[in-house]
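Below sits the subject:

***
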Amino acid sequence: MQFYSEAKSLIKVNIREYGMYIALFIIMLTFSIMTDGLFMSSRNISNLIDATGYIAVLAVGMTLVIVIRHIDLSVGFAAGFLGAIAAVLLSQAGVPFYITIPIILVLGIIVGLFNGLLVAQFGIPSFVASLAGMLIFRGALLRVTEKTGTIIVKDENFNAIGNGFIPAITKVGGLNLLSLILGAVMIILYIYSEFSKRNNKLKYNFEVVSANIFTVKVIFVSAIIAYITWILAGYNGFSWTVIVVMIVVAVYHFLTTSTVLGRHIYAVGSNPEAANLSGISVKKITYIVFGSMGMLSALSGILFTARLQSATTTAGTLFELDAIAAAYVGGVSAAGGVGKVTGSIIGAIVMASLSSGMNLMGIGISYQYMIRGAVLAIAVIFDVVTRKKRA
């Protein structure tokens, strides 16, 4: 009885965080039933996750931007433009992919710092500054692609980033062995991380959940990782896109939860004036967050260009709205100071699952946009209501 009482209390206190996991479970279960299991097939799940990659990367960066109470509308066409520059370097200039990728990432940082300059130094509202950037990069993309319309990328190594899979080494019962090994490693790292955090809290006499609740949580999350690994291993295994996204999430999760910089970012988002008075440079944090957003925009552009194996005049269209939606659905607060990188990834998967499921059911694109918009509105309403209750 005590277990259920504690579990109920824990869910009630953390309903904003746990709500998206519950929503994702319901969405997947519903579509799986309505498509006779096709939604949860290895091929569909693999395609769904790969198609989510470039938006998931943007959602990670957008999380930090929203946390510090700003917005960046330029990320979509910045990704499209930088992806087109990568295509030009690869196809027309003959630059090797291992040189092209660092160049594009550095250009992305410069783009992000430019937005940061407008916001931090000149005090221009981020909405206006990034809107200007969106128009600039939209025009720049059209300028780069106006001669051919589409720039074909033939570099197999570069294209593998968006379409390739990690080698299998061998097959075990029809499953990709290397993917199974990576899944097992992820489970071990997750368990180690959870035990480490729990022990650190106990060391300093912080409040922690009971051993029973902790055990259930660890087993449940480990089972989910194992199940997804099994599904993907049954198709072609982990794609390089998934590997890139996992690296980005791991790095930013560590950055935001275990470093001084991460604490400063959330401090600025919670109360910029108090953070400034306590010695934290709000301008510096703004530069870092927008520079990071620019780099992730470049990475998103690389993933998208590699997936299409080309750069097009429409690349980047609505990317920024999908990233913002993923961040809000994933638990980022419109008031700033609240939000997790891992939550935004779940938000991206929720939105992608909705699109994938509705496509499989043959629902028209007009209804899809309305349903996705309703989901976003519900997520923000839920955030506002829960904040008012806590206040």
About this structure: The beta strands are 150-152, 171-172, 175-176, 310-312. The mean pLDDT is 89.
